Hints:
Elements: E1 2-3, H1 6-34, H2 41-52, E2 54-58, E3 65-71, E4 76-81, H3 86-102, E5 108-113, E6 116-117, H4 122-135, H5 138-148, H6 154-165, H7 169-178, H8 185-193, H9 198-204, H10 223-231, H11 238-260
Parallel strand pairs: 2-4
Antiparallel strand pairs: 1-6, 3-4, 3-5
Amino acid sequence: MSKLTAKSAIQLVKINQEIHDDVVKEADFYLQYKQPSGHDVVNGGIQYLSKNSIFLQIPSTDESLGGFIIDYGSIKCCYINTYQPRVNQNFIMFHEIYHIAKGIKPNYAHFVSVEIEQEPIIDDRKADYFASLILMPEQKMKSFFQELGDDSGFHMKIFKAMNQFKAPYKAILIRMLELNIIQETEKFTEYFNRRFDLEAEFSENGLDASSVQRSMVKNIPKFDKVFSKYIKNQFMPESTNEKNRELYNLLVDKLTKARRD
């Protein structure tokens, strides 16, 4: 697998145009009916996953791994790799929320990779676009860049947008191209390929550096709570419930070992 290129990213914008209407409806429905009240968008997403899945947060040093969803039929398990910077985690989270809301195949595992060039599977493209629409609403993005004016250098505008919308660098750039905030593909390609020490840039310019740092959060729900809420079935033999316990412990053990490795 290779890293996502600027050329491929430009093609994604064209795909976004084709799926725009469908995904906008999904995003609007989530914000109106599913987003937990009393929370900002990001914390609302965390609450949604906690309510609608077994939600695991564990750092794994596999930097290509963003997270995954496993659908066991009656329950879903959602994992986010907290070794990723927080802005990446936010994007991954809403990608996974799309799949949970729309549903995936029972007994199927869906993995989310980070900045990996792949054949554009339409459901994954829709999930990414859903995350983009939730984190970077069109009117708020346009108003934000209009207010910035020309006082800031172009790279600083991107950093400030990352700080404001809590979204990854390349996701910001792709959204800017889509909304004609960037109009030249040459300029898009130049900045897409540039590399920055984001933590240093944020710290030196009065931005929230924690948003581009690895959170390293470890959140493993206590098994007894998970067992009583999702797994234990009074109509099943105790041996079946015990097997569920073993599977859950095996999953947590594998993720914990990945963190150490």
